[in-house]
Amino acid sequence: MASARDRVLDAYETLLIEHGAAAITLDAVSAAAGVSKGGLLYHFASKDALAAGLLDRLRDRSAADADAIRTAPDGSVGYYIRTSAPGGGTPGGMTRTYLAVLRLADGTESGQAVRDALAVVDADGYEALRDELHDPVLAWLVQLVGDGLYLRTLTGTPLPPGLGVEDLLARMRRYLPAGPEMAPPAP
Question: What is the DSSP letter of 156?
């Protein structure tokens, strides 16, 4: 069972995604989390502390995702592209937390803190790709393709009819250096 702190952050994410930052109150978060307001305040003394907790969660999940990128059996590029695409999903709730943080940026005074946390996520992914590709431009190109797929994931936009992630990876294999990162997925 999730800890009270995790339930509060889960509820906060849900409220941000469904209603935006302007609609968030500590009472609404505590009710959605199923904890007393005192229980919420024990973990997060204010809305700013709650936002900071969500940004910490994003950074933690990003670090875990970067480790997964580096150790993916089919290589960093395949992992990055597949988990960025609609339906691919990153393990550990990264997509959901990222979307909540984007909503947090909409209506809070935490703008710089949000941008800083998003920069950490961006750097984590880039460095993990660069570890395997070695070429900074190729790593950035893969990241940009993944970012475009991730935007589709966040907005619910489907892939073009008749095309899928494996089609994209097959074309990318023509341009990227051969190696484990571009090996076809195991059956």
Answer: T
